[in-house]
Design goal:
The chain is α+β, with helices and mostly antiparallel strands. 28% of the residues lie in helices and 9% in strands. Strands 1-2 form a two-stranded antiparallel sheet. The relative contact order is 0.17.
Length: 98
């Protein structure tokens, strides 16, 4: 059980973030299924989030993720990847994740 939860909670601070990010978070069951299946096949992945612009939405948001945040607006780093197709390669603030 602990191993499964560790794939869903990246740090304790995330547990205290306000939710929901959107009053009407997008429902994307196929995206969630794909995300879960991909994580199952690739244990080396720590975080997997799929961004999309839901029908009728004005902004790109997270529609599937192993760490929640469904409905969270794409930040500038996310949008840079979307615009250019180039991944962001950096170490997080804690220095424990690339």
């Amino acid at each position: 059980m602990q191993a499964g939860l560790s794939r869903r909670i990246t740090n304790s601070g995330n547990l205290f973030e306000p939710v929901p990010y959107s009053p009407n978070p997008p429902v994307a069951p196929l995206a969630s299924s794909w995300s879960n299946a991909t994580l199952g096949k690739h244990p080396e992945l720590l975080i997997l989030a799929l961004h999309a612009k839901p029908p009728g939405a004005a902004e790109v948001v997270i529609v599937a993720s192993n760490i929640g945040r469904i409905g969270k607006k794409a930040d500038e780093d996310d949008m840079g990847v979307i615009r250019t197709g180039k991944p962001v390669l950096e170490v997080n603030e804690a220095g424990n994740r690339f």
